Amino acid sequence: MQTTTDFGGNEGSLLSVLKTLLFFTVMMITLPIGLYFATKAYVFQGSLGYSSNDSYFYAAIVAVVAVHVILALFVYVAWNEGSRQSRVGKQD
């Protein structure tokens, strides 16, 4: 008799999906914010000598690009993970 917490053979795939989701969630939170402040302070104001207003603008562009890259990578990984699981399921 199976209980509601028994996932059968899907426990490994469920854990893999949750790890992937957690990884990209952490990346989505930390990377754009970190890049925003790092590029504002060290690249645009520090190295290039831009004004404060200009550095805000360009650092925001860097953060938005980072968000798009992370989202594209997530879609790519999720797509490949889904096709990999369907191939494994067909071989059984």
From TrEMBL:
Any GO BP annotation: vacuolar proton-transporting V-type ATPase complex assembly
Keyword Membrane belongs to the record: yes
Keyword terms: Cytoplasmic vesicle, Endoplasmic reticulum, Membrane, Transmembrane, Transmembrane helix
Coiled-coil intervals: none
Residues spanning the membrane: 21-44, 56-79
InterPro entries associated with the record: Vma21
Protein topology in the membrane: Multi-pass membrane protein
Record's keyword annotation contains Membrane: yes
Cellular component per GO, a single term: ER to Golgi transport vesicle membrane
Top-level division of the source organism's lineage: Eukaryota
Cellular localization per UniProt: Endoplasmic reticulum membrane; Endoplasmic reticulum-Golgi intermediate compartment membrane; Cytoplasmic vesicle, COPII-coated vesicle membrane
PANTHER family recorded: VACUOLAR ATPASE ASSEMBLY INTEGRAL MEMBRANE PROTEIN VMA21
Function: Required for the assembly of the V0 complex of the vacuolar ATPase (V-ATPase) in the endoplasmic reticulum.
Name by which UniProt lists this protein: Vacuolar ATPase assembly integral membrane protein VMA21
Source organism of the structure: Coilia grayii (Gray's grenadier anchovy)
